[in-house]
Amino acid sequence: MLEPPTSxxxxxxxxxxxxxxxxxxxxxxxxxxxxxxxxxxAAAAITGVILFLSIQLLPDTVTATSLFGAAVGFxxxxxxxxxxxxxxxxxxxxxxLTERLGEVQSVHCEVELRPRGARVRQAAVEVTFDWGDLxxxxxxxxxxxxxxxxxxxxxxxRAFASQAARDQFLAQSRALAHQAST
Length: 182
Hints:
The protein has four helices and seven strands, in the order E-H-H-H-E-E-E-E-E-E-H. By secondary structure, it is α+β, with helices and mostly antiparallel strands. It folds into two domains: 7-14 and 103-181, PH-domain like (Roll), CATH 2.30.29; 26-101, no CATH class.
């Protein structure tokens, strides 16, 4: 038998907001960060090598000129890679989520605070994140963000009828998380 929720909110999220939450989860991942770093260095190195070889093919080219061109190419790509990576990642996440959810305008989301954990229902999936697995609770302008070992829950600010309701939900979250850790 399920224990009754201590608090419950529901709200709709757009596909872009679902992409945003998945993107936040990837930002928190050490493995995804290593993919980003490796991709950045690889793209910059490949650009440097291509520029070096291309400049070497020009007649009367000095090796120092090729090395300088390769270094400039490496640095330019190394510098612009993060912004380009973020743009491509968001586009790929959007395509993946569209494949999974279909061409939806919004997805209904419900979050219940229970003594055992935060219970989330979204897109015909129900998951309970145990308070014992909670890493942080962040009060952000977007909403209340819960970072668990296995995922992120973001309760959007618009889910609350008032600032007082939001503050109460946050206080209850912190109290339940504290009880679970003692």
